[in-house]
Design goal:
The chain is an all-alpha fold. It has helices spanning 3-9, 25-40, 42-50, 64-77, 82-90, 102-110, 116-129, 153-164, 177-187, 197-201. It binds fe (ii) ion (2 copies).
Length: 203
């Protein structure tokens, strides 16, 4: 049976509705079971996607995967908590699909699993990183100043200064991705905040 045939006539249980408004409790029991199983695979999908950055230099001294590993390693060696290190590891994972807004992609994926502060750092790190290079591209070096009065300004400034802007050294001995995998799995094991958290909890 080829994949297309399996999709059309597969053995797996399926909801019966053609339009959502015809849905029944039985339909949603089927979908709910599949959803929980699929959600459990999120860390694997994230790690697989992160590997797409391997060998992608974009003119930088290190590839985007090495930059991610180096940012996370520097944060880890500086004693940061596990959720912070995972944020550091994933902060640029949106580079592949978010060519014009990459911080928002990683922030959206992390959002259910981290504090509001860590989410904010990830979401806004682009403007703070700009302090180190925007002026070379005819942009405003001080773009981060728009956030000066925000309670997380200093935390984001510190993330970029200590870890993100510092993570382009080809001679730095970063930990491999395998080192961080258990951390990613633990942080993403259960959402703290999600509209679907209740459905996941009812296992
Ligand atoms: Fe970035
Ligand atoms: Fe970065």
């Amino acid at each position: 049976m080829d994949v297309r045939e399996d999709t059309l006539h597969g053995m797996a249980e399926r909801a019966a509705f053609r339009e959502m408004k015809q849905g029944t409790a039985e339909d949603w029991a089927v979908i709910g079971r599949d959803y929980r199983e699929f959600a459990r695979g999120l860390p694997d999908r994230v790690l697989t996607h992160l590997k797409l950055l391997d060998g992608d230099f974009g003119g930088f001294p290190v590839c985007r995967l090495e930059h991610s590993l180096q940012t996370a390693t520097r944060a880890h060696r500086d004693g940061r908590a596990e959720d912070y290190v995972v944020m550091a590891l994933l902060h640029d994972m949106g580079d592949t699909l978010g060519s014009y807004n990459h911080p928002e992609v990683a922030a959206a994926i992390l959002k259910p699993f981290v504090s509001e502060e860590l989410h904010w750092i990830c979401q806004n790190h682009g403007a703070f990183q700009g302090y180190y290079y925007f002026h070379f591209l005819g942009m405003d070096q001080n773009a981060r100043e728009q956030f000066r009065d925000h309670p997380h300004f200093e935390a984001c400034r510190e993330f970029c200064e200590k870890y993100d802007q510092a993570a382009f050294d080809p001679d730095y001995a970063s930990e491999p991705l395998e080192f961080f995998e258990p951390m990613v799995r633990r942080v993403m094991a259960k959402p703290i905040t999600s509209a679907y958290a209740k459905a996941i909890a009812e296992e």
